[in-house]
What we know:
Helices cover 59% and strands 13% of the residues.
Amino acid sequence: MRGPSNLTSGKSPGRRWRIAPGSIKAYVVAILLVVVATALRLAFGLLTTQIQAFTTFYPAVLFATLAGGVGPGTLAAVLSGIICWLFFLPPFTELLPLSVGDEINLLTFLITSAVIVWATDHYRSLANRLKDEENLRKLAVEELAHRLKNKVATIQSIIAFNLSDHSEAKDKISGALAALMATDDLISAAQSRGADIRDILSAELKPYDLSRVAMSGENLLLPAKFALMFALLIHELATNAAKYGSLSKSTGKLSIDWAFEDDRLSLVWRETDGPPVNPPSGGGFGTKLFQRALGQFGGGLHKDFAPTGLVCKLNVAIPENGNAVLTEKLRELR
């Protein structure tokens, strides 16, 4: 069992500094905001006589409501009205009488403050509700990913037991499941938006020594559905390269180049310095499978068994992706 996440433990930095609505801290903050507004009004009054009495107090009401809700916002409005009445509306330091104009100004301030308190509290409640819903969604995704890993682990155990006499089939299926799990982790890290193409390639080729692999291409976020299929394709190519191609020899090299233009991904997988390669008779099962899978995206896969090594070319449409997404954007989500 996993321990409680920051979403439920209440120990995250954001919650530590959050002010509870209607708390003592919220009312203290409201009073301090009125004090600051008063000081600013006095300072502005020394600079010019053309400033209105209530100018600096509107923000105090706004921020008091944002910080603590209706109660602190109302307190800030009432205190601001009293202070302005006493010190910034003539006759100073006396509550009565006020001119008709000042009475209208005071009443306007109180009505406007009431609107500010209501609107700000409504916004505050809506923002908090959306934040809670987003946290709940993230928690549900994390829990689903955790359960999925457990399911995959169980499936791998079943496969290992039932295919113990068929090691090649067992390894092939287990490897494909591992590729899907690794890509699922990348997709979860990006909050289900997809997975970065370079991260997928690195995850699949890491067991074969990445120093032998040259990658060149723009940073690109692949949509989730395509990312899973792409991971299986790269896993198939990497497995074959490790068995029969350039990755089967210590001197072998692999280069992968890709580009994204007009909503289409072009990728070239090029093996060099490996053993001589020959095309399989009748075409491999994996190649046929991925040809059909890529057909969903209006693309295809072409293999050229050149004397220097396998050259595999992929061209496929990715309309969901829109513009290329920088890896830095993906990092911010993690």
